Amino acid sequence: MPDREIEPPLWEQWEAAGTRPADALTNVRPDLPQGDRLQKVLARLGYGSRRSCEEMISAGRVTVDGVVATLGRRIDVDSATVEVDGVPVSVKPGLVYYLLNKPRGVVSTASDPQGRRTVVEMVPPEPRVFPVGRLDTDTEGLLLLTNDGAITHRLTHPSFGVEKEYLAEVQGTPTPASLRRLREGVDLDDGRTSPARASLDPPHLLSITIHEGRNRQVRRMCEAIGHPVQRLVRVRIGPIADRKLKPGQWRALTQAEVQALQAAVRPLPGSG
Ligand code: URA
Fold first, then answer.
1. Which listed site, 24, 129, 217, 237, has its alpha carbon 20 to 30 Å from 179?
2. Ligand 1 pocket, residue 217 CB under 6 Å
3. Does residue 169 contact residue 231 with C-beta atoms inside 8 Å?
4. Which domains does the chain have, with CATH numbers?
């Protein structure tokens, strides 16, 4: 049997290359760049080719931790705060964003003491996600679930005023005067509501768009104008809508949808 060709030990290869293993392990030079290249991170997130992301950086449109980034910048994706055109970008790996069409009867909390089915049980168990805000148990429609705490905070905080659109099947047929009340604001026991957008598809179907998130708000608004809700479905959250997703179905948001959501919760100029 011919002798097997024996490769020189790794040690010798390192010696030949001028870098001994001890050096390779211990010589982490603090001046060497660390982290991922910014254009690579942005391209991975769908902001365009690496070349066009480089152009965005060169044009001064990207900040890292509040400072305008320059080309060649590397970032630690676990800790950096990145914004493109003032819109925060979720660069942290492992963030997931799901859109669920919640069926009636399913609770919007992470667990239910009464043992009812929860929205969290309807999406993959790992990584653990939480619902962004709530829908009443008897309300159906679109609900976001994510492990991105920053966007959850912004989407649920009233100061960001993200629009939510509902279709409500109501008792009776609202008159133009009742629709005007919805548009101008309705007095509820926790105060007057902000003006809503409201239109009627006769005889019973109301489309209502609000940007507050009070408890059972749409139901109480309809009750207040004398047309209690029989069925309530949320059909849009800010820029996110999906008429094809059936009750009980979920899907991951596209990168473009995540970006649109980030843009929808960008602070208004001058709001600090
Ligand atoms: N308004 C309601 O009345 N219920 C919901 O679930 C959401 C908005």
1. 237
2. yes
3. yes
4. 36-89 (3.10.290.10), 94-160+240-267 (3.30.70.580), 163-237 (3.30.70.1560)
Cα–Cα distance for residue pair 147/110, rounded to 1 Å: 12
Q: Say how many Å lie between the CA of residue 233 and the centre of ligand 1.
A: 8
> CB–CB of 259/46 below 8 Å?
yes
Q: How many CA atoms lie within 13 A of 166 on its CB side?
A: 25
How many angstroms does the Cα of residue 216 sit away from the middle of ligand 1?
4
The pTM score is 0.82
